[in-house]
Give the backbone structure.
Amino acid sequence: MAAITASMVAELRGKTDAPMMECKRALTEADGDMAKAEELLRVKLGSKAGKAAGRITAEGVVTSFIDNGVGALLEVNCETDFVTKNDSFLALAKAAAELIAKNNPADVAALGALPYAQDGFGPTLEDVRKGLIGKIGENMSFRRFARFAAGNKLASYLHGTRIGVVVEFDGDETAAKDVAMHIAAMKPVALSSADVPAELVARERSVAAAKAAEDAAVATAAGKPVQSAEIVAKRIEGGVQKYLKEVSLFNQAFVKNDKLTVEQMLKAASTTVKSFTLYVVGEGIEKKVDDFAAEVAAQVAAAQQAS
């Protein structure tokens, strides 16, 4: 049997980007034949996707594509920040955004079924995704996307690769791009106060009411007068109105000139923003947090019990 050297493993890893131990196993199975080992890895890579599929993908990138009034915004997730800098992963994300804009898939499954080839994988986007899972050694997934084709003008802003915004507008493109940048920074939840989802308003009202009750309890304990129900009600409503202004785009102070609201800036630029879409990587995904000290302690305890 041929000796498998570190340089051989490094060479195979350079060709395939496969994990080091996978390269060593393939070379051993191929008795040192580099071409055969590469072929074995190509065969095995697809099966690795199933093993990785259950792992949490809370990192990733947001990317956009706009062409001739049609656009797309896409979030693609992976397991670690390291992979977000991988050229193959970034190429996959960029290509998927373009496929969304040009083909109008109904959902993520339909997106995966679209024709696409990359890095020797294909013939569909899903085949490439699975192939890259094996090649890179991490789970990755298309989480969500939005397509824009309503006939409005489109402007986008990407803050690095972690925050993406697309704005549908009519008017000045520079003003619209400034608003997209503002949205990335201030993260409004709606265009106007009236558009803020009812569940968010109810939650904020509940928080304000709980704070008022806490203040009343503190006042009572200190022997101080408690505010009337009418005043308390006004305080609660005042807190809700303050919240609505803070989270609605048009009411927010414009980041490039805080003496103007976004609405005032747009009016001065004769520009109308009709809608916006904001994606933040991993938003709403529960990340796994490893407690290294607890893990070591558990291993020590297990070793002591075994002895």
User: Anything to note?
Assistant: Residues 32 and 56 are 35 Å apart (CA to CA).
